[in-house]
Amino acid sequence: MVWVRISKSDSLLFMFLFALPLRCLQATQESPHVYTREEVRSHSSPETRIWVTLGCEVFDVTEFVDLHPGGPSKLMLAAGGPLEPFWALYAVHNQPHVREMLAQYKIGELSPEDKVPSTLKTSDPYIDDPVRHPALKVNSQRPFNAEPPPELLTENYITPNPIFFTRNHLPVPNLDPETYRLHVVGPPGGQSLCLSLDDLYKFPKHEITVTLQCAGNRRSEMTQFKEVRGLEWNIGAISTARWAGARLCDVLAKAGHQLCETEAHVCFEGLDSDPTGTAYGASIPLARAMDPEAEVLLAYEMNGQPLPRDHGFPVRVVVPGVVGARHVKWLGKVSVEPEESYSHWQRRDYKGFSPSVDWDTVDFDSAPSIQELPVQSAITEPKDGETVQSGEVTIKGYAWSGGGRAVVRVDVSLDGGLTWHVAELDGEEQRPRKAWAWRLWQLQAPVPAGRKELNIVCKAVDDSYNVQPDTVAPIWNLRGVLSNAWHRVHVHVAP
Amino acid sequence: MVWVRISKSDSLLFMFLFALPLRCLQATQESPHVYTREEVRSHSSPETRIWVTLGCEVFDVTEFVDLHPGGPSKLMLAAGGPLEPFWALYAVHNQPHVREMLAQYKIGELSPEDKVPSTLKTSDPYIDDPVRHPALKVNSQRPFNAEPPPELLTENYITPNPIFFTRNHLPVPNLDPETYRLHVVGPPGGQSLCLSLDDLYKFPKHEITVTLQCAGNRRSEMTQFKEVRGLEWNIGAISTARWAGARLCDVLAKAGHQLCETEAHVCFEGLDSDPTGTAYGASIPLARAMDPEAEVLLAYEMNGQPLPRDHGFPVRVVVPGVVGARHVKWLGKVSVEPEESYSHWQRRDYKGFSPSVDWDTVDFDSAPSIQELPVQSAITEPKDGETVQSGEVTIKGYAWSGGGRAVVRVDVSLDGGLTWHVAELDGEEQRPRKAWAWRLWQLQAPVPAGRKELNIVCKAVDDSYNVQPDTVAPIWNLRGVLSNAWHRVHVHVAP
């Protein structure tokens, strides 16, 4: 049972891949055209025609793209590759009439050697990384860092596990849930805990919807102003899941820890490590960790399934309202210390600086580690450079704020910020002071007659009435974090 | 003992005023020039010459203004009037050599009928309002609303009581501390409390430094963009004091209230009321009120003295990190309700809206009442339009954020926001998550050679890395609240 050791959400994808040869045996025995995966991959645009595969069958869907009920852009995400990973996300496809419709476009089959993915054997430390969803936009393969495309990002309030943005700093460990242990260091004179997964399951199970965002989300907009060091995240380094696990405060209390008057920090260590054995690490203030209302979790479930390997299987920290970097994955050790974690990522990264600070003058000790994030929003539809119809335009996006602060309003402008419309907020009702999850929003607005282009802008307001800054230059910083200026999209209007 | 019923800080001022005739009896019996207060008042600029009074003596300090150790602008605040209220703020003046220096400038004495202030008798409901400090910049006399001038605002980390900004909605009640009672409504089936001041003193005394800010602070900058309804506050509707009193959570617990799972609100009613008997009122969420870490106070002391009448004598609410409007003064009643206060000021005022909303379209129910305020900062020195010396310029100001979020950085620009300097933060060290008080800041920066003017800008960052918006137009709202765009000051450089 190999897939017991990987998460169930990965297993969905695996089942599709391994199921291919089986289906092919049942296919018709006429002599179809045979194509390699390489040939299919080269047909991914209207110019080259648009091919996709389902099982061992190959389809030319060029004529169907504009008829796709979910919109052409969503189908184009699969152009040149398999449909299964996308159909797995959107159950609406699993109906006979969809298969019949697709059958009309069949042009052949995959060659026998292409029916199962080839396996590679190298000394690459990343060789054991899990298979990923092809829709993810990859910013770095080793370590793996990828985000969902804007078209899919706000398609669901809860982000499906396979396309949840992934931020890895190191190779993904392959941990055995049977032998996994979490070490919780006890207080001085107290006793440490060594918890198996079963031990962790015995704590009260707590389930909450939490949005995670990378500090580098929207970094690519900062880079446009001036070079920074960091991965080129677009607007998708943010996703939302329903997380379940034990509350950190319950586990710390069991180990004998109490809230103390002096400042203290809960340090987390991951089981992912670099070739020198240095593990990923981070910390949060003890006051947050011990506050039941802050709902910090040691999570073992993500959207009702065991954590996917990319998201920390079998246990990760979830710190609602706080930057992703503190949600340590593959959690190995928890301890309470008088100082913040000495990890590179706590002390020499994930901090904000003035635009005047460069790599020659930066003093990392002068800035606090990022914990709660500022108010944020972005436009996921339409896309920059797109042509929209005249008459009415539909604009969609997300908005979120750190620290449990609810988004109370999203303003949208079609004229670069001169005049504003108030967008409609969708998504779950949030509890006061515990608005851990984003709001999706949309606006239908008339396109002013005669306009040939629109400068669409969005900005959100949270319940402390914090707002986003107008422009990116004054918040530029050398690491390109905390990029939350108004999001701007320029589109053309069809004549 | 009339002054027992007013606060001790007012009494300082009263003592100066009533002490005048006594001092005059001791003055020399030569025949000095005699001037009326009206004549003195007309000498308040270099053109008319600058006169001030101390006791019954009149001085022409025109030649001294530029020699004033505290700077000419501070002495000019007293031009045409008495020195006592200013000397009361700055103890450094109470030295023999200061009086000797002043004596050189004596030109005469006040006329006998001007030695004590005249009393007025009218049916004005504000007739019983207390005497105020002359340094306050008055935005409205009835009700009284006034702010300290920028020169004094950041002179002290703790704002002296007589110049603490005052925001009254109604006439100031004149309450007898002997008969004062605070009514605390008990839970259903429980018992209500009726607390005297002595009863309140029996709760553990809790003392904290808290900055209060009016939602309308810096409204005048919004007005410059487009008209709003509201008082024309400059940058001084913010002040800091050391408050002491009983914790609200202790008083609510004594009345039998507990934190409940359902949403609830603590409603406050003031003893100030309009001619129809409607009292000022406001509410805060029960979760904040019951959280000992939120440190909500029923305060009876301000900077070590009983509350001044203008600031709620004998008891006011202090809600750290929250907009001034919820810090109900002259507190008469506390109750726990399933809904927010039905007061006008909770439901039909003190809310933020999109710039697109006007008085024809506004729906007050669509926005949350302002509670925590967003990050804020302003420049108190130099003043707009001032001429600064070439070489080096000193810039001073304040920065604060709501919700206990600490200010972690203030960026200052001399070129309208193109390049930035990091200011030095002064003031008390703040506790994590309890940064209730402002930081004062300053920057000494070289004036770039050849520059004839400077566009000085400041912006602050709090520990959730929230920042201020660049410009005021996109946050403009019909009531002119939440004005926290970059503060801008334009100065000339002396050749």
Automatic annotation (TrEMBL), chains A, B:
GO molecular function: heme binding; molybdenum ion binding; molybdopterin cofactor binding; sulfite oxidase activity
EC number: 1.8.3.1
Signal peptide: 1-27
Cofactors, names only: Mo-molybdopterin; heme b
Pfam families, per database record: Cyt-b5, Mo-co_dimer, Oxidored_molyb
Domain Cytochrome b5 heme-binding: 32-111
GO BP, sorted A to Z: sulfur compound metabolic process
Primary location: mitochondrion
Reaction catalysis annotation: sulfite + O2 + H2O = sulfate + H2O2
Keyword annotations of the record: Heme, Iron, Metal-binding, Mitochondrion, Molybdenum, Oxidoreductase, Phosphoprotein, Signal, Transit peptide
GO cellular component, one term: mitochondrial intermembrane space
Pathway: Energy metabolism; sulfur metabolism; Sulfur metabolism
Subcellular location: Mitochondrion intermembrane space
Transmembrane stretches, start-end: none
Role this protein plays: Catalyzes the oxidation of sulfite to sulfate, the terminal reaction in the oxidative degradation of sulfur-containing amino acids.
Family: Belongs to the cytochrome b5 family.
Self-association and partners: Homodimer.
Protein name according to UniProt: Sulfite oxidase, mitochondrial
Organism: Lynx pardinus
